[in-house]
Structure formats: C-alpha cells, structure tokens
Amino acid sequence: MLDATDFKILAELAENAKSSYAEIGRKLSLHPNVVAYRVNKLEKSGVIKEYTTGLDLEKLGVAEQILVGASFPRDTERGDIIEKITAIPQTVKVVSSLGEPESIVFLVGKNKSEIEKLMSKLRSLDLKIEYTGSIIRTFDEGRLCNFLKVLASEYESEHNRDGKNGSINKGG
Prior knowledge:
By secondary structure, the chain is an alpha+beta fold. It is built from six helices and six strands, in the order βαααβαββαβαβ. It has a four-stranded antiparallel β-sheet with strand order 3-4-2-5, covered by helices on one side. A two-stranded antiparallel ribbon has the order 1-6. It starts with a strand and ends with a strand.
C-alpha cells in the first residue's frame, strides 16, 4: 500500500535522486531512518526501479535530437523490430504504441549527417516512417515530482476527510 508519505518521498527523489535520507527527512519532517525504511520498501516492491542521471546533451556534443514515428512491416514480430531499433547506439528510447504510428523512436546524433545515416538504418528495417521531428527543447524538468506532490496532497485530503489511512493498493 502506498500512502501520502510514500508519494512525498517519491516526489523528492524524482526531483533529486541524490538527495540523502537526512535531506528528505528534513523537508518532510521525518526521521532519516523512516525515509530509509520506506525507500527500501519502495525498491523491494518495484515501485522504484532505478535512479537516473539527467544529462545536458548539448554539452556532450549531441547537437541533434529527433523523434521518429514509425510503423512496423507486416508479418514481422514487434519485439524483433524493437530489439533491432534499440541495438542502434544512438537510440535513446523506443515507445511501442497502439494505432499509427506503432512506435515513437527518440534518436540523438552529433550532426545532421549522422541523423541521416540513422534514418537510413531505420529504413533498412522496412519501417514505415510516419513522421520525423527535430526536438528544439523538452519541458519535462520537475513535471513528475509535481504530479507526485499532487497525488500526495489528494491522498492526505482523502485521509483527512474519510478518516481512512490515505493509502492505495499498488497491486491494482
């Protein structure tokens, strides 16, 4: 069961995965041992899958970022094609979706020439390219932690109103 405190801890970690348990505890008025216990529980239950690092791709010399909407060739196993796409080193993410396009691929490259070579690799897999778009800027910084804070607030409000424990069952 997740409760408002779990969501608050998750929001803090989503904002800064390097936050210490003491820092999170100070912000949330919790003892660091309580934070450590809850984080461990969230890790063991699979709610926390990994800790990641946000990178400034431009500072790494990655000048081009594109999204490609593509559909798979007929009579081809979706998983096989996705495996081939993810084997391309410049593939950052592949989202498999229903409808058209069947996938959205996020690619990075040092320059337009490298991107053109990547597009040729995708075409060699017989993908039907539905669209391509250059990414100018992404606006996701802090979005997930803001959503988690809203969830925590909603569960606290529900708890205060209903006199319940304000938790949800993560099992469905």
